[in-house]
Amino acid sequence: MEEKSSCACSIKIAEGAKETDLRKKGVFLGLALIGWWVLYQQLLPAAHWVTYSLFGLPLGTHLADATAFFLYDVPKVFMLLILIVFGVGLLRSFFTPEKTRDILAGKRESAGNVLAALLGIATPFCTCSAIPLFIGFVEAGIPLGVTFSFLISAPMINEIALVLLYGLFGWKVAFLYLATGLSIAILSGWIIGRLHLEKQVEDWVYEIRSGLRPLVLDTLTWSGRIEYALQAVKDIVGKVWIYIIGGIAVGAIIHGYVPVGFMASIMGKEAWWSVPLAVVLGVPMYANAAGIIPVVQALLGKGAALGTVLAFMMAVIGLSLPETIILRKVLKPQLIAVFIGVVTAGILAVGFLFNAVL
């Protein structure tokens, strides 16, 4: 009896410690969010003070404009990124690759395409996850078209890009990016499904079992999920910071030195070839979404058309050369070509459509 009583007391003590730890983390996160908001409001005045008072750069010069842009955007993008990655980290603690696969298994193609595209937003798996995810989906009997809707949506509708677009340009541009990206993922997957290209998947994919190891996330407490999200911030920001600074530096140069008329002439509505050119330029680029957003901001500020810029961004994110090379390990050349062709056609349609109506 004494042993049982001792065990019960130990369990209660452990549970009490977990609750105390969770409360402490909740208070810390609440105070951190307040501090984040106060600091965020001071970024623009601070950037102007450093540029014009501390550095003494003359107002209106190219160097001053580029410097102010860089000093303002670097902390702004990093602050937005930390907040976004933490929130997405909490979300990802509920979605493992196995759970995503189970949700999609057994769904009809039309409904499956829509659900797969939506899950692609909520489960932002990286390019390196493409092969194990693809194998796992095939193993579960998920239709090829549904699988592609997910694989297109996951990188193209990047949650970091979505929230940064909202923070920089407002909800209309963010919504356009979300709606068009979803449409491309759904329609592309549906078209690929109609072509019945299952034989264009490498034979070995059908012959092996998925090597995915389940992530033990279902048993996490809220305290554990917060730790998981904080670790995601550390890992992701640690990997992409160089792309962010590089992208902002390019954006600063464009903002400060590129004439408005020049940019409008090569990426404006009147240049019909601007959309195909933007896609061609975007495909070979290997840039993180967080790093490409400042470039998008600078291009729009210099007179580039929204449709052209969206096409460029989607090509960089959704048709990246590294992902295509990785997918070649599981797809035969004909299916790779169809995948690239269908997605490219969708991106071109988005570019021309928004240049025509906006």
Task: Give a quick precis of the structure.
This protein has 358 residues and is mainly alpha-helical. Helix content is 78%, strand content 0%.
Give a verbal description of the structure.
With 358 residues, this protein is mainly α. It folds into two domains: 91 residues; 223 residues, no CATH class. Helices cover 78% and strands 0% of the residues. The protein has 17 helices and no strands. Helix 7 runs antiparallel to helix 9, helix 8 packs antiparallel against helix 9 and helix 8 packs parallel to helix 14. It starts with a helix and ends with a helix. About 2% of the residues have low confidence.
Which characteristics define this entry?
mainly alpha; 78% helix
Amount of helix: over 70%
The sequence of SSEs as H and E is HHHHHHHHHHHHHHHHH
Average pLDDT, to the nearest integer?
76
Strand percentage lies at under 5%
Q: For the CA atoms, what is the radius of gyration?
A: 23 Å
User: How would you sum up the major sheet?
Assistant: none
**How many alpha or pi helices?**
17
The residue ranges in which pLDDT falls below 50 over 5 or more consecutive positions are 209-215
